[in-house]
Amino acid sequence: MEILSNEAVIWFIAGAALLLLEFVIPGVFILFFGIGAWVTALCVYLFEPSLAMQFLIFSSTSVLSLILLRSFLLKKLYKMPDPVVDPDEEFIGGVGECIVDIRPDADGKVEFKGTSWTASAGTEINPGTKVRIIRKVGLLLEVEPA
Q1: Per-residue DSSP letter, 10
Q2: DSSP state for residue 79 in the 8-state scheme
Q3: Helices (H), the chain
Q4: 131 phi-psi bin (left φ>0, alpha ψ -120 to 50, beta other)
Q5: What's the mean pLDDT in 61-65?
Q6: Closest among 91, 70, 104 to 139, alpha carbons compared
Q7: Residue 39: pLDDT over 90
Q8: pLDDT of 1 over the 70 cut
């Protein structure tokens, strides 16, 4: 067990344990303390600093790596899709069903995504007809037969 008397090995093992613990505890947080422990192990191996200096190296590298790298890693690991610029755009091109007569001179109703919407069209559309949404203006859908 002479190998465990070497401080660099102890810091290295602590870093490996922290990195493995990151797989158990989600959040991409403990990883940076593992990095700090490995940087400390390298410094202890190369320079043999005092115990107080080792803890200073560990804490400073852990916090610095946490501050500088966490947001970058979270963006890379959990890449989010680009948000929809205009929420109304998700309606355009959608297909619904006419549930109340739509005439050029009078609005009717369509069902789209389980919700009833007021709709207008340039042509007459009878109930049961599939419609395609051309445009959304406020709460009014402009449709055409699909």
Answers
A1: H
A2: P
A3: 7-24, 31-47, 51-77
A4: beta
A5: 96
A6: 91
A7: yes
A8: no
